[in-house]
Design brief:
By secondary structure, this protein is α+β, with helices and mostly antiparallel strands. The chain folds into two domains: about 80 residues, OB fold (Dihydrolipoamide Acetyltransferase, E2P), CATH 2.40.50.140; about 120 residues. Helix content is about 30%, strand content about 20%. It is built from six helices and eight strands; from the N terminus they run βββββαααββαβαα. It has a five-stranded mixed barrel with strand order 1-2-3-5-4. Strands 7-6-8 form a three-stranded antiparallel sheet.
Length: about 240
């Protein structure tokens, strides 16, 4: 018997049978779990099976390897607070899709949960959440063992004027060391080094290009999957809104 109770966020949900749903959840202590939710396609339950809804999950399976069943209890207002902000909803959907595609099943990743939680909390602040989205993806990479090393220059050991990242190693490179190879390096936006640097023009775009490269190279590529369409749509919408 496999049973637990945990805090979680809904990542995906799809109809199963006449009235049920298969729901993927990002739990705080147990990682990503799929479960059958009885009545999940009903008018009563369907509204809180949207990506990003916070729930208390009670999970049960007779055999550990089987798909279990879950009872979900919504916690807080959830995405309903963002209904007047389609761009923020797109960010939430993209984050849920990235987490659902990147995280392995039934493997604890508390860092991923905390990164997702931080992003959800930032979505009410239009000026900062795109940068927090970049940090969420960087946190996801870190928690999966592919963290970026932005502490010092990979070539010289200097901690000053770090403006590039090696697309091969994920390590920072200083302006001076990277100058001869800058066309082959990824741009490192200052806000990824420290929050006090603030956001400049093009920083969010550079950050998304950076995390997107490593998500594709280290996680989605080896699984023979593309980056989630919801993430690509988010980039289009951020560009349309002039937020990149």
């Amino acid at each position: 018997m496999n049973e637990f109770e945990d805090d979680a966020y809904v990542l995906t949900a799809r109809v199963h049978g006449e009235s049920g749903a298969i729901v993927e959840l990002l739990t705080e202590r147990h990682g990503k779990y799929a479960a059958h939710v009885a009545g999940g396609n009903s008018r009563k339950i369907r509204p809180f099976l949207q990506p990003g809804v916070r729930v208390l999950v009670r999970y049960r399976a007779r055999v550990a390897e089987q798909l279990g069943s879950a009872q979900l209890e919504p916690v807080g207002e959830g995405p309903a607070a963002l209904f007047d902000d389609p761009l923020a909803l797109s960010g939430l959907s993209a984050a849920a899709a990235v987490a659902a595609g990147a995280l392995p099943e039934r493997e604890p990743h508390p860092g991923a949960f905390l990164a997702f939680e931080a992003l959800v909390g930032a979505l009410a602040h239009p000026d900062i959440w795109p940068a927090v989205f970049v940090r969420f993806e960087a946190g996801l990479l870190q928690d999966l063992g592919f963290g970026l090393d932005l502490s010092k220059c990979a070539a010289t050991g200097s901690v000053d004027d770090l403006v590039y990242v090696s697309p091969r190693t994920g390590r920072a490179v200083s302006r001076a060391a990277g100058e001869p190879y800058k066309d082959r390096l990824l741009t490192l936006p200052p806000f990824m080094l420290a929050a006090q640097y603030g956001l400049g023009a093009g920083d969010v775009s550079a950050g998304l290009a950076l995390t997107g490269h490593f998500l594709e190279a280290f996680i989605f590529g080896p699984l023979n999957r593309p980056l989630p369409p919801a993430r690509l749509w988010l980039l289009d919408r951020l560009e349309e809104a002039g937020r990149l």
